[in-house]
Records
---
Amino acid sequence: MPDDDDEHVLARSIAEPAAFAVVYRRHAGAVLRYMRRRLGDAAAEDATTEVFLRAFRQRAGYRPRHVTALPWLYWLAGLVIADLAGAEQRRLNVLQRLAAMAAGAPAESSRPGSDLTPDVARALLALSAPDREALLLVVWGELSYEEAALAVGVPIGTVRSRIARARKQLRAVICVAHASHDHPGDAHA
């Protein structure tokens, strides 16, 4: 193997950290394109940076299983994506708890987002991540469908179908919630 392949460059970067730049230059474009497809343009650059930070920190543990380090970098990208999904899940859980606490507080009703009831927060948690993202970009982010499509890097038709699917699921939850408030004994009938 030549001395400039990814395995040797990563090994050399242990003693010479600046050598890691070679791996970055070789693969940053591919990782960024992948992250854009997975996360959309807005989050892709930060997520790509996180992939390479993790790669730099973990370079001593790199074990070559392929001619290039790209599969390893994509594995790290998957971990970053999972961490971002977990963070979103935690944020929605917090919103659900806040909505539950504020459910009986009329003073809170003038606050933006106060229409987030525990039932709606639960329904948001149940949506797929792409459906939830599209819906929240339009509803909370106040983007048009076209702007939301640009934000997540998908065609406008995809955003339309994601939002339609999300609204259908939310509508079902809200109808059940209203029915249970109107007829408390009939909620699960």
---
Amino acid sequence: MSEDTGQRYGFEAFECAPALRLQAHEKVAALQFAHLNGRLDKIEEMMARLEKRLWLALFGMIAAILTQTLQQVLSVTP
């Protein structure tokens, strides 16, 4: 028997409407998943940037509190 040449049992290969519809649906689904993955990647990048900003804000607030505490301690003890 020949290896997947599109012919079976001596008949010529042909395209049928249900198979074409299925192929079109598979292509559309693949494109939708590719687009969805791209959007999810962008969302993950935005979340990473937001996380960095939040950590920076937190460290800034901690630094401000420590600075005020240190100033109060230095002003009390000459």
---
Amino acid sequence: MASLTEDDVPSAEAAAYLRGYAAAWTRRREVTEARAVWSGPSTPGTPSRATAQVLMEVVGAAQHRFVAVTYSARWYAPLTAALSEAVARGVTVDIVMETLEGAGGLLSGREPADAFSRVPGLRLWHWPMGQRQTPGGRLHAKLAVADDRVLFLSSANLTAAGAERNIEAGVLLNGGPMPGRMADHIRELQRRGVLARWPGAS
């Protein structure tokens, strides 16, 4: 303000400048940067942001909150390491996954929740059968959100196959309102009890 006084800038002009500056910063927060993510065989000109690379970047970007939703999950060492580091730096980590019961025989082996048993401190969630309004409904979403500002939507499950071996497609969104809206939706489902803590989870 001292420089405005010294330069004899009219109050109306100074106010207009400040309003414009504030509006520019507001628009900057609303701007979304979108990038395609592909895994599998490449072709000339295809964006080459691999699923595994982007997933680790999103986990690494989280400073306060990280949430991921997946249908299937299997232990995947790079993801386990990234989640462990996030918890260690104080990030609240929520993982929402399907269950063997919920999958109705379409998943086999160990529970998806077992994929995260080596990461103490994260919170596991599921969609209880009693909360499913339609018989046969499944938790099939795959996404990850870091700090309500980075959103990764993908066809890939949280498995080594999904991250490294399959043909998978997704989009990475940085900024804008969508990451926060998606995270808010998940939090509201948790608050309402539509999503519940996995039995026996810490």
---
Amino acid sequence: MPASEVPDAALVASARDGDSAALTALIARYSPKIMRFGMKMCRDEEDAREVMQDTWLAAARGVRDFRGQSSLSTWLYSIARSFCIKRRRRTVGEPEHLEALDELSEDRSPGLVAQQRPDDAAAAREIELALERAILALEPSYREVLLLRDVEGLSAAEVAEVVGVSVDAVKSRLHRARAAVRARLAPLLSDEPRALPEATCPDVIELLSRHVEDDVSPALCREMEAHVASCARCAARCDSLRKVLSLCEVSPLPRVAPEVEAQIRAEVQRVLNEPRGVVR
């Protein structure tokens, strides 16, 4: 079976027993995702790289105690988040510019840009960077839930486990984060009328966000669909939120340099080979 198809649990067990191929597969599978999460949380590529490396070392030290009660991705994101928070506490303010995000090239951004015709590449890049800026503009508590749920694909329950709050709190933050990102991107994504919704219009953005989380009853869903079918303004707003969610799903993974992966493998292997009880 190709390494890409081996379940996480089997790879973890093999890596714990000294299988270097399993360790390589795990690091290749999750390093770009951890790096992407770190870049968007830390707003700095170098910090994100260090978060990724620290995450793997911490995971290696705790892997003997990892029993699979949580998914591997939930466990790794929990560790990465803790390192992001530590870096944020040590830093006075966050950089106002996008370090590496403004320098995305096609080989590092296989998402929208690579799928567009050449004459559409500039527009796709503009949307991609606008999404990055909109996410980075969120407060960290809102940013992290949107990243974990809509970019990294964790369930709301898994996000709650990573963040350490209730599922209801996750969903509340998620609805606000989605609305804020959509508002920033709307001018690029649709021909949405500039006028505000009528007083009789429901909050279709929150309703649609709740619908994505299966929190809207069938009756309310039918009411919303009927209203959207008759209201061009609300239809455009819903369409722009759907596009934002689709863009989040295809957010490009950064390229982790082979030499960085090699260094991580060597350090993780060293930690795994240490006898129990060794503390560094």
